[in-house]
Inverse folding.
């Protein structure tokens, strides 16, 4: 029986893999929704998914990028959009937050920080986008950079931040120096093995989800490699499913987002938990949460 042809292998004009240094990549199915000049490639050595170039993200990019402006034209709209995730993250980390000194990096609209204030002894945010500090002036501490935030934190969180960083290994090393003895980092990122991408191979989703602002996509293995290279100890890597079965069925049937809203009548707590557990068992949830500690 003839074997199916392998996907094209590219070596030209792509830097060696950020994690393992390999120089052979395969194209992933799909397109970068906002920049057709970029390809999404997967390292043949370690499986790290990255863009064919990261040159478009330069120093100072996020201070005024307005990258959430299309879906959240105001901070109030952004807070409404992030409400469910903010609440879920506070519940997930409540015991780790309680009576601790906490820093949230890349805080976006700061909905998580606002909710976590009820539990943390002290909590501050790092958010370079200027309109956020203006919005919360006088109500919470927001630093423009990690350097301005100081150190001695018991917990540092970063939700959907690391995939935006041009140099994530070096950045994690820097964050670790801000921890107090015994402190932890909690990192949440999209999963490169998301079921819609790699199990169902949903063409519409593959043309929707890749974005020029997401320079890397990690799976559980590449997150462990990144953390180890940054000199951190991996306490655990956990799969989490943000979107329920209704969302996936809508993508597969209609080729559009929003199924968890339009078809919410399909979802029950029992069904959502069972579906998430099934995806977690094969490493194909949409989200990875990694708990890290300083190695020394």
């Amino acid at each position: 029986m003839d074997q199916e042809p392998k996907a094209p292998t590219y070596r030209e004009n792509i830097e060696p893999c950020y994690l393992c240094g390999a120089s052979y990549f395969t194209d992933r199915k799909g397109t970068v929704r906002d920049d057709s000049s970029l390809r999404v490639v997967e390292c043949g050595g370690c499986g790290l998914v990255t863009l064919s170039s990261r040159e478009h993200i330069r120093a100072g990019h996020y201070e005024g990028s307005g990258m959430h402006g299309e879906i959240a034209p105001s901070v109030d709209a952004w807070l409404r959009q992030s409400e469910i995730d903010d609440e879920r993250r506070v519940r997930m980390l409540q015991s780790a937050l309680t009576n601790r000194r906490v820093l949230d990096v890349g805080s976006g609209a700061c909905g998580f920080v606002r909710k976590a204030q009820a539990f943390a002894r002290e909590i501050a945010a790092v958010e370079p986008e200027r309109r956020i500090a203006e919005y919360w002036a006088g109500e919470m501490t927001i630093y423009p950079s990690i350097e301005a935030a100081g150190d001695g934190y018991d917990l540092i969180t970063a939700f959907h931040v690391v995939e935006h960083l041009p140099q994530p290994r070096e950045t994690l090393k820097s964050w670790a120096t801000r921890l107090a003895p015994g402190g932890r980092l909690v990192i949440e990122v999209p999963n490169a093995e998301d079921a819609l991408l790699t199990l169902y191979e949903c063409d519409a989703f593959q043309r929707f989800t890749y974005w020029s602002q997401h320079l890397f996509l990690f799976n559980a293995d590449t997150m462990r490699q990144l953390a180890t290279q940054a000199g951190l100890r991996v306490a655990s890597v956990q799969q989490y499913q943000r979107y329920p079965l209704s969302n996936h069925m809508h993508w597969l049937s209609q080729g559009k987002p929003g199924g968890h809203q339009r078809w919410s009548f399909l979802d029950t707590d029992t069904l959502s938990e069972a579906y998430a557990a099934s995806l977690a068992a094969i490493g194909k949830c949409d989200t990875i949460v990694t708990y890290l500690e300083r190695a020394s």
